[in-house]
Design brief:
With 122 residues, this protein is mostly beta strands. The chain has no helices and 11 strands. The strands form 2 sheets. Strands 2, 4, 5, 6, 9, 10 and 11 form a 7-stranded mixed sheet that branches. Strands 1-3-8-7 form a 4-stranded antiparallel sheet, with no helix packed on it. Strand 7 and strand 8 form a beta hairpin. It is globular, with a radius of gyration of 13 Å.
Length: 122
C-alpha cells in the first residue's frame, strides 16, 4: 500500500507559478512510476505529467509541455509538479498517483491522493 498526500495548491494569477508536492508513505516510492492528473468541474480527469520510477523519463501532454515539470526525490519519497506560465484553463483539482506502469493513462495508476485545488485567475 502507498498513501499519497498532495500540497501546494492555491490561488494564483494568470502567468504565475505554483509548485505542487506529493508526499508518499508506505512502500518505497522508487518501485513505482508516478504521475499527476487534474480534474476540472464537469470534465473528465486529465493526464498532466508522468515520471518513471527512477526519474529518467517523463511524459507530458501538449497542453502543459514546456510549462510544467514533474520531478521526484525517491530518498524523500516525494513527487513534485512545477507549474509555470499558468493559465485560467489550468484551474482544477490536481491529483498525484502511483502505479506499476509508466504511462499517461489513469487506469494504470493504483494509488491516488485526495487532491489539491489550483485556481488560476485571469
Amino acid at each position: 500500500q502507498v498513501q499519497l498526500v498532495e500540497s501546494g495548491g492555491g490561488l494564483v494569477q494568470a502567468g504565475g507559478s505554483l509548485r505542487l508536492s506529493c508526499a508518499a508513505s508506505g512502500r518505497a516510492l522508487s518501485t513505482y512510476s508516478t504521475g499527476w492528473f487534474r480534474q476540472a468541474p464537469g470534465k473528465e480527469r486529465e493526464f498532466v505529467a508522468a515520471i518513471s520510477d527512477y526519474g529518467d523519463s517523463t511524459i507530458y501532454p501538449d497542453s502543459v509541455k514546456g510549462r510544467f515539470t514533474i520531478s521526484r526525490d525517491n530518498g524523500l519519497n516525494m513527487i513534485y509538479l512545477q507549474m509555470n506560465s499558468l493559465k485560467p484553463e489550468d484551474t482544477a483539482v490536481y491529483y498525484c498517483a502511483a502505479g506499476r506502469i509508466y504511462s499517461g493513462n489513469s487506469r494504470d495508476y493504483v494509488y491516488w491522493g485526495q487532491g489539491t485545488q489550483v485556481t488560476v485567475s485571469s
